[in-house]
Design goal:
By secondary structure, this protein is α/β, with parallel strands linked by helices. 60% of the residues lie in helices and 12% in strands.
């Protein structure tokens, strides 16, 4: 394993985290009220006794953007893990279905699926991952029969002991970053560049989001409130879940 160029890692984070923040802003610019309303559960928000159009818009946006940001930040962490491995072990993006990274270290070929956090999938997704690992191992051994191969589920944050799951090793948090870098402190040190200009980026996001909330609130009042400015829940639920027109 080659020594990790920490400055190169920090420079990479400083650049890529800007892309994450820009992607958040771009997501705000592209969404519509109808998209948000159709993708979230109106029954849940009715059960919470949402009475204000502004409160409802804020709650729906919170739920909608949270899942979007998890995906965006997961992509950032995946790119960072591949970059770190490229620095130390000439790691590269995997071409195998469902896998993200391949690298060699001390005579072992590591095939890695990268997840941002521990709550990444259900039982069917776990089975699909196992199948992907098995197929990738078969393909690798067809070209190099004597190769030692270790499939790894690498989880970027979370605290749990490394565990052998049969088809793969699950390696989490500090241990995963150490596997990639040989540096036991990397998982701590990357938090500083991740926070680079965070206030500036989040102030811009907050301003854009406030404007979007105001626009969506006006649209919701116009389309889904009655003459007394109360939320018309049957109309909203029909918009979300009513049958589509059939073609004659």
């Amino acid at each position: 394993m080659k020594p990790l160029d920490r400055q190169a890692v920090f420079d990479f984070v400083n650049v890529e985290i800007v892309h994450f923040h820009n992607a958040r802003l771009d997501r705000l610019a592209r969404i519509s009220l109808s998209e948000v309303l159709r993708k979230k559960n109106p029954y849940l928000f009715r059960a919470k006794n949402m009475l204000s159009a502004g409160d409802l818009v804020r709650a729906i946006l919170d739920a909608f953007l949270s899942s979007s940001e998890e995906k965006l930040f997961g992509d950032f962490l995946e790119s960072l893990a591949i970059f770190v491995s490229g620095q130390t072990c000439d790691g590269k993006k995997s071409t195998a279905e469902g896998l993200d990274l391949e690298f060699d270290h001390e005579g072992v070929r590591y095939l890695v699926s990268i997840k941002s956090g521990p709550n990444w999938g259900n039982s069917s997704q776990v089975r699909r991952l196992e199948d992907n690992f098995k197929r990738a191992v078969i393909v690798q051994r067809q070209s190099q029969s004597g190769l030692t191969i270790q499939p790894v589920l690498g989880i970027c944050y979370g605290r749990a002991a490394t565990r052998d799951r049969g088809a793969y090793l699950r390696i989490m948090g500090q241990s995963f970053w150490y596997l990639l870098s040989g540096d036991p402190d990397l998982y701590l040190d990357i938090i500083e560049p991740i926070g680079h200009r965070a206030k500036e980026h989040n102030d811009a996001f907050a301003e854009a989001r406030a404007a979007l909330e105001n626009r969506f609130t006006q649209e919701l009042i116009d389309s889904f409130c009655d003459e007394s400015y109360r939320i018309d829940w049957p109309r909203l639920v029909a918009f979300n879940s009513g049958n589509l027109p059939t073609n004659d």
